[in-house]
Amino acid sequence: MDASQVASVGVNRDTCQAAATCLAYQVYELDDESKAVLLTRNGSNSDESDNPLATAEGFVRIEDLLNDQRVSRETMQALVLESAQACPFNAIIVKDADGNQIWPQE
Ligand code: SF4
Fold it and tell me: Taking the model in full, what pTM does it have?
């Protein structure tokens, strides 16, 4: 698995079980239903229906994630992939630039 392929990330709300492993990473928080959402650089999150930085399915591009510490794109890609691999329920979905799912591996 090559982190340089990572282009966007989303959370499957059906499989997210609030294990909260992902909260160790700066781009997640739990919403009021105890489901993980992605924080976006406009101060909103992936669960807000009027957030232009999230798709209707809640996916956010790497460059649109909250990045207060202004780390490099490569660092964000590695962080996202690591967080997805750490989720015990495989609820974090990672896609490449073509929209193909690269994690969890099918
Ligand atoms: S680690 Fe996985 S199951 Fe736990 S809150 Fe995050 S996305 Fe949900």
Answer: 0.95
pLDDT above 80: residue 106: no
- Kindly give, in sequence order, each residue whose CB lies less than 8 Å from that of residue 45, ignoring residues fewer than 6 positions away: 29, 31, 37, 38, 39, 51, 54
Q: What are the extents of the domains in the chain?
A: 3-103
Instruction: Identify the CATH number of the domain defined by range 3-103.
Output: 3.30.70.20
CB atoms within 10 A of CB 7: 19
Residues 6+ apart with CB under 8 A from 50: none
Whether pLDDT at 82 is above 90: yes
C-alpha 61 – ligand 1 centre gap (Å) = 19
Q: Is the peptide bond before 52 cis (omega within 30 degrees of 0)?
A: no
How much distance in Å is there from the Cα of 22 to the middle of ligand 1?
A: 6
